[in-house]
Amino acid sequence: MSSRRKFIKKAALGSVALSTFSAYDAQASNATTAPKEAPIKTAKKPLIISTWNHGLAANQATWEALNAGKSGLTAIEKGLNISEADPKVRSVGYGGLPDREGKVTLDACIMDQNSDCGSVSFLQGIKHPISVAKKVLEETPHVMLSGQGALNFALSQGFKEENLLTPESEKAWKNWLEKSKYQPVINIENHDTISMLVIDKDGNLTGGCTTSGAAWKMHGRVGDSPIIGSGLFLDNEVGAAAATGLGEA
Fold first, then answer.
1. Can you give the pTM of this predicted structure?
2. 140 or 11: which carries more pLDDT confidence?
3. Residue 248: inside a domain
């Protein structure tokens, strides 16, 4: 399973190796004149970082899981579950703003230090897409499941189907329908998500993203968040990065 998921890593390492070789050659040719560089400082461990203020509660849950001896993968899942279950966070999970048909559709991905990853997109009726993405990583030979297939898989794994549209989000959708103008602005009110990166006590990296996507999007739209190499990527020997915002920007 792991070997099938490492094609992105191999390509990325090839690019890194090329750029490192070129930089080394340049440094060697100017060894007598180049100033000495300060040593690179390593991050304190463990370390958790996530996006936006609603990430603070998620960080706390992740921290508690790490302190309890959980893996980085499980800790990130537990942390992001907090945002997914909070109806006040209207860009993630339960209570997320719906598409233009009034349906809440969810995307998520997760990746560990071994470059194993799992992802779901266009998932409906499941409150915790990050947990389904983790199951994709652990239980399937695939990286991503989408739509009805993702839902069927979630149900087979014991997840409960439920209505994710809260009265508040439904009201916002009905207000939008009065004009039905789709002019997304890059801000935190109408489309942003949560991404989280973790360095555990052993220095291993894990990352995750979960989102309900852009409000009032066309039904079926999938953004950048669940796509490995776009919404999230990590290399345990190099670092990790996650992106939030408007996927089409």
1. 0.81
2. 140
3. no
